[in-house]
Amino acid sequence: MAGRAADGDVTAFGVLVRRYGPMMRAAARRILGSNSEVDDVVQEAFITAWNKLEQLDDPRRVKAWLMRITSHRAIDRVRSRRPMDDPEDLELPAAEAHSPSRMTQTKATASALREVLAQLPDAQRSCWILREVDHMSYREIAEALDLPESTVRGLLARARRTIMTRMEEWQ
């Protein structure tokens, strides 16, 4: 499909938009921390992809290529709004309905995690979110962020170490 889109087939590109758009939205939301800019980032990513389709070396790798474009756009957006917007906007999975005390504890822990994530350097936060929230492999993260896999592993190790240290009281 990517090969046909690269040849100027608008219908084929539409198929790519429908196929990969939801995944790109999810990745952008996790990097951005909220829904407010997700559609803009994904739209920018698709415009970039359309304009650079001829640069796609291997059409079988279109997913990783689109995710890399999306990640770069989202990270650029985060960098442009420094300091980070309200970390409360980060959407974490909802806690199961338990006792009120359990729900209060879960909310407090999630709030603390949001604060810790907001303080991480952009690259560490992006790697951590792509790995722990999006469940991407090291290779997929490396491709999405256009980084060597060893760099991704190092960024994740530093992010995890920081999170564990700062979240000790919540364990």
UniProtKB/TrEMBL annotation:
Residues 16-82 form the RNA polymerase sigma-70 region domain. Residues 80-103 are annotated as: Disordered. Keywords: DNA-binding, Sigma factor, Transcription, Transcription regulation. Residues 112-162 form the RNA polymerase sigma factor 70 region 4 type domain. The keyword Transcription regulation applies. Belongs to the sigma-70 factor family. ECF subfamily. This is RNA polymerase sigma factor. It comes from Arachnia propionica.
